[in-house]
Amino acid sequence: MPELPEVETVRRGLAPVMEGAVIARAEVRRPDLRWPFPERMAERLAGRRVLRLGRRSKYLLADLDSGETLLVHLGMSGRMTISQPEGAALVPGVFHHGHPAQAAHDHVAFHMAGGARVTFNDARRFGAMDLFPSDRAADHWLLAKLGPEPLGNAFHEGHLVAVFRGKATPVKAALLDQRVVAGLGNIYVCEALHRAGISPRRKAGRIGAGRVAALVPVIRQVLEEAIAAGGSSLRDHRQAGGEMGYFQHTFRVYDREGAPCVTPGCGGTVRRIVQSGRSTFYCAACQR
Ligand SMILES: [Zn+2]
């Protein structure tokens, strides 16, 4: 399941092809994904220039010259693929595969003026798209309640200390709460708590302010390292069929149950527990 770094990697991969470019034609091959597509989506996208391709939490946001914004959510299994006509001029960051035949689960295709094609493939169909007036983005039901971006200025020590104060939920659940910080998922919460030496079971409100504050730079670092890994995966993209956002990471605790803890001098073992129905990986020896 793509988390924030994967979505940011997709955004960076799509930007050279989509930003400033015109969607000559949009092909919408089914009525819905997780929810119905917006009315007349293909018509509303056709001929529109993408002014800016942004991201909020795990949502890609393409601002169009029509004054509307296209929101794309990859869901559980959504993939964006770029293809170019054979023999297209080389553009840095653009991948060349020739247009492949339509594959199973290719639900939407954006045919860009100039020949590039951006295809949205989603086997499980938990993805979503929406179109709404750009000036109403802050009120959109998927965006309105989101907390600050973890890599933005509004996510700072004072914010996290304030929202954790008095919270009786475990810190793991508190960090997964999208109102606390937007876009953090299971993997990077486990990784950040391990680096910060904080037990995922500890109640958020019972962690000292200094340790809570120290979580902020750790969360940023974990995400930035993953985005950097995604960036290198973009450069090595030729073998991956133009598909972006899924890349190999080295995790310190995530999915390493039973493996030795990598904290120098710790000697502990990574454990898996279930919290709110989801796996948590941590080291009980160095996370307190
Ligand atoms: Zn440890």
Description:
This protein is of the alpha+beta class and 288 residues long. The protein folds into 2 domains: 4-139, N-terminal domain of MutM-like DNA repair proteins, CATH 3.20.190; 157-283, Orthogonal Bundle (Helicase, Ruva Protein, domain 3). It contains 6 helices and 10 strands. Mean pLDDT is 91; it is low at 237-241. Zinc ion binds at residues 261, 263, 266, 268, 283, 285-286.
Summarize the structure in short:
This protein has helices spanning 4-18, 41-45, 157-164, 171-176, 186-196, 209-235; strands spanning 22-28, 48-56, 59-64, 68-73, 78-83, 106-112, 117-122, 128-133, 270-275, 278-283. With 288 residues, it is of the alpha+beta class. The chain is elongated and about 55 Å long.
How would you sum up the major sheet? Answer: 8 strands, antiparallel
**Tally of structural domains:** 2
The CATH superfamily label of the largest domain reads: MutM-like, N-terminal
CATH-assigned fold name of the largest domain: N-terminal domain of MutM-like DNA repair proteins
Using DSSP, what is the number of strands? 10
Question: Which hetero ligands occur in this complex?
Answer: zinc ion
